[in-house]
Design brief:
CATH architecture of the largest domain: 3-Layer(aba) Sandwich
CATH class of the largest domain: Alpha Beta
Strand content: 15-25%
Structural class: alpha/beta
CATH superfamily of the largest domain: Glycogen Phosphorylase B
Length: 399
């Protein structure tokens, strides 16, 4: 197959989970003999040269990488028209068999426009915020993309339920979970004894509202007050306001000696931060399928997390960690204290966590499942009872 992939980010510009996921998927699709053309967002400008700061990269055989995905196509009709002309020219030279879009907007929006223009089937992948947030901000766009996609992939059952509530799409949807490379994300070869040293609590990624920073900060304060623990935040604030909020909280409660914030880390270095932790905490309010939790579990860490969206697809309550109601500080604190005080339980749950990701969240499983969906739409074998309602899309008439 020749696959046209639209994604807001892609390696080497790794700025979040979607770049990690698309890079992992494309590598395996190439290994399986497919050709992939990627359209992604242009990197930010270099402040000195005022040109896009594109790192040098040598694309492997079978991969073509283009920068120029329109970031807000709903408000940029001329940019969409230019992109359509460019993609149509590429399609004429080397036809695409299928368009795969990561996130419903902007990539899914553009994919359905291009799919209708080129006569190519479209598969849209719901990742998280594109459903749980956008359904309240731009429901008409989201509904049109869901209706006009040939097939839909959701990273968790909860996202599928949300999408199906907005537009009946269950019959043409497939759940394909995120994955983690457990050869890269693995614990120390030798277990480091925790006796005689503080237990290290940790989390990772961008600190922001949807990640429950308003719960995470009082939680670590409560735990630092009652136990001799250290906290490692392998990440940073989403913006200056979040950084100020975190700094002010640590100042107010005199926690700087107990809390370390690493700042941005290249993804390959994240494993070293996770190996310093004894317990992983996730306080999110919204999660498609949390990459940070998967990576922590691969490193044999027990997880205490809120039951947000796809998190419950990953964490087995009482087996690989604990799930708590969203926003419940007391429940989170109680479960963390149980694991802080019981090192044998931490180790047992950590081993179970690693085994779970190895068995159920392997990158090859993810790639094979996505490949199967793409092959099905290319062969025009629509699933039985597939939803085929056609509604007028909000972009009609803008081209």
């Amino acid at each position: 197959m020749h696959i046209c992939l639209l994604t807001p980010s892609f390696p080497p510009m790794v700025d979040g989970g979607v770049a990690i996921a698309t890079g992992r998927l494309v590598a395996r699709l190439l290994q399986r003999g497919h050709q992939v053309t990627v359209w992604t967002t242009a990197p930010p400008e270099d402040s000195a040269t005022h040109t896009a700061a594109v790192p040098p990269v040598t694309a492997p055989p079978g991969l073509t990488l283009h920068y120029g995905l329109v970031q807000d196509p709903w408000r940029a009709a001329s940019a969409v028209a230019a992109l359509c002309t460019w993609v149509q020219a590429q399609h004429h030279v080397c036809p695409f068999d299928v368009i795969l879009a990561y996130f419903m907007y902007p990539a899914g929006y553009l994919a359905t426009v291009l799919g209708e223009l080129l006569g190519v089937p479209v598969v849209c992948s719901c990742r998280g915020n594109d459903v749980s947030k956008e359904m309240f901000i731009a429901p008409e766009i989201l509904a049109a993309v869901l209706a006009r996609s040939t097939r839909v992939i959701c990273v968790s059952t909860s996202l599928l339920h949300m999408a199906d509530t907005l537009v009946p799409c269950r019959a043409k949807a497939t759940v394909v979970a995120n994955a983690v490379d457990s050869t890269l994300f693995a614990p120390h070869a030798t277990v480091i004894p925790s006796q005689g040293r503080p237990v290290v609590l940790g989390t990772s990624g961008l600190m922001r509202w949807k990640k429950g920073i308003d719960l995470f900060l009082p939680l670590i304060h409560a735990l630092c007050t009652t136990h001799a623990v250290r906290v490692l935040v392998a990440g940073y604030g989403l913006d200056a306001a979040v950084d100020r909020q975190m700094t002010a909280f640590l100042d107010r409660h005199d926690l700087h000696q107990q809390v370390e914030i690493t700042g941005p880390l290249p993804h390959p270095q994240m494993v070293y931060a996770l190996r310093r932790m004894d317990l992983y905490i996730n306080t999110s309010y919204q999660e498609g399928m949390p990459n940070g939790v998967l990576e922590a579990m691969a490193c044999a860490l027990p997880v205490v997390a809120t039951d947000a969206d796809g998190t419950s697809d990953v964490v087995q309550d009482g087996v690989t960690g604990y799930l708590c109601p969203m926003g419940d500080l007391n429940a989170m604190a109680a479960r963390c204290r149980t694991l802080i005080e019981q090192p044998a339980l931490r180790q047992r749950m950590g081993r179970a966590a690693r085994l779970r990701v190895q068995q159920h969240f392997h990158p090859d499983q993810e790639a094979m499942a996505v490949e199967a969906v793409l092959q099905q739409v290319c062969s025009r074998e629509a699933p039985t009872g597939a939803h085929d309602d056609r509604q007028r899309a909000p972009w009609e008439g803008c081209r």
